[in-house]
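Take a minute with the sequence and C-alpha cells given here and flag any C-alpha cell that looks odd. Thanks in advance.
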Amino acid sequence: MTKKGIIEEIFSKAKFANEINLYYVSYRDFEKIREIELQEFIEESENFQKIPSSRITKIRKNNTILFEKNLKKDE
C-alpha cells in the first residue's frame, strides 16, 4: 500500500511554503536509490507520471526525515 496521501501533503507544504529548495527526495531508480531536490523530482517525474509515488523511499527537509519507507530485500 502506498503512502501517497502523506507524500502529497509533504509536497504541498514544501511548494506553498516557498521552501521547496530545502526538500530532497530519495527514490528507487532501477537497482539503486537516487536522491535529488524536490523541484527536480517534480520535473523529472512529470507529476508522478514517470516516477510513481510507490518508488519514493525517503523525503527529508534539511537533515530531518519526514517520510521513510521500509524497504524489503525482495523489492
